[in-house]
Amino acid sequence: MIHKETIDKIFDASRIEEVVGDFITLKKRGINLLGLCPFHNEKTPSFTVSPVKGIYKCFGCGKGGNAVNFIMDHELLTYPDALRYLARKYNIEIEEEEQSPEELESQNARESLYIVSAFAQKQFTNDLYHTDEGKAIGLSYFRERGFREDIIEKFQLGYSIDKWRAFTDTALKAGYQLDYLVKAGLTIAGEEKTFDRFSGRVMFPIHNVTGRVIGFGGRTLKTDKKTSKYVNSPETDIYHKSFVLYGLYYAKKGIIAADNCYLVEGYTDVISMHQAGIENVVSSSGTSLTVEQIRLIRRYTQNITILYDGDNAGIKASFRGIDLVLEEGMNVKVLLFPDGEDPDSFSKRVSQEELKTFISENSKDFIAFKTQLLFEEVKHDPIKKATLIKEIVESVAIIPEAIMRSVYIKECSRIMDVDEQVLLSELNKIRRKKVTDTAKPESFAQEPILSSEGIDYSVEKKKEVLFDDCEEQEKEIIYFLLKYSDQKILTDAEDEEGRPTEVEVSVADFIIQDLNNDRIKFDNTLYQRFFDLYTNPELPTENYFIQHVEKEISQLAIDLVSSPHSLSDWERHGIFVITEDQFLKKAVLKTIYALKSKKIQKMLLENHRKIKDCKGDEEIMRLLVERKQLEEGKKLYSSLLGRPIIK
Ligand SMILES: [Zn+2]
Questions:
Q1: Of 281, 290, 446, 619, whose CB count within 10 A is highest?
Q2: Cβ–Cβ contacts within 10 Å for residue 191, how many?
Q3: Is residue 391 part of a domain?
Q4: Does 221 share its domain with 297?
Q5: Are residues 301 and 362 in the same domain?
Q6: How far away, in angstroms, is 73 Cα from ligand 1 center?
Q7: How far is the centre of ligand 1, averaged over its atoms, from the C-alpha of 61 (Å)?
Q8: With bands split at pLDDT 50, 70 and 90, how would you rate the model's confidence at 260?
């Protein structure tokens, strides 16, 4: 367990915009920041971060929370682990109370993988610089490739000694457990023996977006045909290949600055480009591009440029992957290096300036590139040509934006010399089919939790609300407690001699007293729990709820404070403000009346039902009296709310 004081310290230090900003690009929008939501797939940003309130809220998928919640959800960490993450980020020392065995175990499992991976990186780097073998083989290889010292250091390159289990033995001697070495993919447990996965290879550590080592790529320098050139870490609890891009940790800032991301093939391409001063570059390293990787890039930019080797036989095979990028609504450009060159070789041959100019002058739009490349091969074969046209139009059809689609259709019609109208009708056919195949609501309406209609009680609810459902009114009460609990309002009272006077009470006291007087309970048990927390002698603050350890409570608080509902909305809805106090009181009263009115409504329905089922005369009499009282109450609250009375 982490001490309460330490938790408070962590919350105080954590700037939500910095915590979120480590993962997604945020742009200023008024007093808030806005970005693409990392929790659902969206193309226009609805993920809002409020530095003032210390919270985030997505108006697309509804996810919201504080800094700790964000790390929990985004990094898939437990509550204590998320606190530890933030403590590390803000250099806060954690004083731990004793942990339960389960806590220790779950924390240890993933953390141990990070720890052994970090140890392995240090060991491999050490072996590169400080062993004869490392220097003779590893270091001289990197130098031969032309890597500068600062670059070798920056990317934490290393070398794994060429013995059966040199690394494993060193790690065991240093106190690391074999179990974790195996789980981290560093050691292979064979049937009889255990041995190093990477022995005799130069090592490229793979980092997650926060810069922790999660896996490795190892390249052999032997020419032996039986040895595969590259060996990568297997999937582990901390390394999921399809969610990782090599170099992203080092590229984040560059991608944002250039508003573009270069995608290359291998580790050395990434490193060479960095050395040449181009830092917005990543590699999917080994796997073919996945949707998750594309979305990772899209957090930082909408623009991808794919760099191909000059003699790349795999270009056509990669087209399907690029369609995925188009489907995500991103702009894709393609760059083909001169024959026989790859980013690595080319960047070493020319100057930095030449490289930059070459890239910017030769990047082509992907669809035009694909069309041209394929068209050259088939232009004399009508059947193949027809197939190609269909294929190209299919690529265009997945672009979400209509304007972009029409631009591409024009371009393709020019390149392939096909009537634009023909392409358009083909396009529409494909899109119609797509729509019927995958009919799903694409856009989420922005959903304020408390709609403005909720205030104007003379207007019937547009939404289909159950007649006896008090949910909305209960929520509004909670809203007032949360937002205005310690604000003072004047309320009627009597002085010592029984004369009418006014006294100041807090909004919280006012609401609590009023509801308790009428013994009103919330139907929604979460609201009731929330309400009960206000009966503490010390009035809890907004932050108390936002940072509450129970996810349900903090979630509700965050939903409410991030709702667009505010007193000024009320003003716009015709409640004229004389002074803020009077206005607040009016608003609180209206909300209480509305809740009571709903509760009475509900009791009336119950009463009707009972009367219908009732057998005994005495019971009927009692119920009829009750009904009369309820109807009077209903009339009273309707008039207080200024509603027409409907029988
Ligand atoms: Zn979202």
A1: 281
A2: 4
A3: yes
A4: no
A5: yes
A6: 12
A7: 4
A8: very high
CA of 298 to the centre of ligand 1 (A): 14
Average pLDDT over residues 616-632: 86
- Model confidence pLDDT, tens digit, residues 295-333: 888 878 889 998 887 666 667 767 777 888 888 878 889
Q: Give the per-residue pLDDT at 459.
A: 28
Q: How far is the CA of 341 from the centre of ligand 1 (A)?
A: 42
Residue 167 pLDDT exceeds 90: yes
3-state DSSP assignment of residue 401: coil
- What separation in angstroms does the CA of 4 have from each of 9, 96, 210, 561? 9, 10, 26, 24
Range from 78-82, 404-408, 448-452 carrying the lowest mean pLDDT: 448-452
Query: Between 102 and 8, whose confidence is greater?
Result: 8
Q: How far is the CA of 562 from the centre of ligand 1 (A)?
A: 14
Distance 442 CA to ligand 1 centre (A): 13
Ligand 1 centroid–CA 444 distance in Å is 10
274 and 402 co-located in one domain: yes
| Closest C-alpha among 184, 151, 185 to residue 281 | 151
Q: What is the pTM of this model?
A: 0.59
What's the 88 CA to ligand 1 centre distance in angstroms? Answer: 27
In angstroms, what is the span from residue 611 Cα to ligand 1's centroid? 48
Do 79 and 157 fall within a single domain?
no
Reference 162, options 77, 221, 98, 87; nearest CA is: 221
> 634 and 600 in one domain?
yes
From the CA of 241, how far away is ligand 1's center (Å)? 23
Residues 619 and 520 in one domain: yes
446 domain-assigned: no
Q: HEC profile for 128-145?
A: HHHCHHHHHHHHHHHHHC
Is the domain of 9 the same as that of 143? no
Contacts of 185 (CB under 8 A, 6+ apart): 197, 215, 216, 233, 234, 236, 239
- 2 Cα: distance to centroid of ligand 1 (angstroms): 30
Tell whether 304 is covered by a domain.
yes
Ligand 1: centre distance to CA 36 (Å): 8
State the maximum Cα–Cα separation within the chain, in Å, rounded to a whole number.
106
Domains identified in the chain, total number: 4
Ion ligand 1 — residues with CB < 5 Å: 37, 39-40, 58, 60-61
> Which CATH number goes with the domain that contains 71?
3.90.580.10
User: What would the pLDDT profile of 561-614 be if each residue is shown by its tens digit?
Assistant: 876 555 444 444 444 444 455 677 888 888 888 888 888 888 888 888 888 888
- How many angstroms is it from 296 CA to the middle of ligand 1? 14
Residue 458 has pLDDT above 60, yes or no: no
User: Residue 40 sits in which domain range?
Assistant: 4-89
Whether residues 224 and 266 share a domain: the answer is: no
Question: How much distance in Å is there from the Cα of 302 to the middle of ligand 1?
Answer: 17
Report CA(58)–ligand 1 centroid distance (Å): 5
Ligand 1 midpoint to CA 547 (Å): 21
Contact 60, 46 (CB under 8 A): yes
